[in-house]
Fold this sequence. Notes:
Layout: H1 9-13, H2 17-25, H3 36-49, H4 52-69, H5 73-86, H6 91-105, H7 108-122, H8 125-137, H9 141-148, H10 156-168, H11 172-185, H12 190-203, H13 206-220, H14 224-235, H15 242-258, H16 263-275, H17 279-288, H18 294-309, H19 314-331
Helix pairs in contact: 3-4, 3-5, 3-6, 4-6, 4-7, 6-7, 6-8, 7-8, 8-9, 8-10, 9-10, 10-11, 10-12, 11-12, 12-13, 12-14, 13-14, 14-15, 14-16, 15-16, 15-17, 16-17, 16-18, 17-19, 18-19
Amino acid sequence: xxxxxxxxxxxxxxxxxxxxxxxxxxxxxxxxxxxxxxxxxxxxxxxxxxxxxxxxxxxxxxxxxxxxxxxxxxxxxxxxxxxxxxxxxxxxxxxxxxxxxxxxxxxxxxxxxxxxxxxxxxxxxxxxxxxxxxxxxxxxxxxxxxxxxxxxxxxxxxxxxxxxxxxxxxxxxxxxxxxxxxxxxxxxxxxxxxxxxxxxxxxxxxxxxxxxxxxxxxxxxxxxxxxxxxxxxxxxxxxxxxxxxxxxxxxxxxxxxxxxxxxxxxxxxxxxxxxxxxxxxxxxxxxxxxxxxxxxxxxxxxxxxxxxxxxxxxxxxxxxxxxxxxxxxxxxxxxxxxxxx
Length: 341
């Protein structure tokens, strides 16, 4: 916990300029519990002005205090959120920033309890999402799933998070069901699509994965994460539409043209070209790539050279040699040594 560094007050408050000005204007005479909404908002603003453990303690204590002080807590939260909206933000945005910082500091479990308290008192999906999101980010997948399943309204982010948690907990079929709901609720959101591609890949459902990739492309255009998933989708089975393959290869080439030092993308591109036995694309990818990090380049050269030599064809051996040559230019290493295959 001691190795985590809390954001300072300027960093945490920088996204809330109107709130910061409001807090400063009331600092000489802070609101009391008689003005509960002002008291609530001022004190969680004060928490942002503190650092380290004092920040977390102050905002978690504020949650306990306002929970105990209000007989109609939901009405209070709505009133406080109205005040926050007038200051250019929302109560959930503020608590998201504080929860994220608490996780960084190592107070994730306690932050989860505070968010669950707010969710239990209000039954608002936004607070339940924050509780589930906190659980997810501290690695408590079961708690995340449990919190998500408490929401009984059409709230797309909950189903996306539920799908991701189910997928990471080894339940891809259930993840697909949750992500389909999220896609129906928010058809223009690419996040559930990205997750459902992964779920389809894990489940071996190649055709549906390719369809989800196509939908992502329509929403995002060329995006390297999607193209890497597309490459993995092609290599996952026998359904290899020529158009889909060419589009994926072309998009990977475009990315390498703009980002020639992305050796992870280069590695995936070369793996796909090898899988498709397409030497022309393989040589093109090599011409685009630039190796700048000697350690990564050596590891990459060894990995891809072994991959290419599996083909047993002379042209692929030539390509393997060219990759090593290109690596040696960066590393200034002699032939031989640990590069021998």
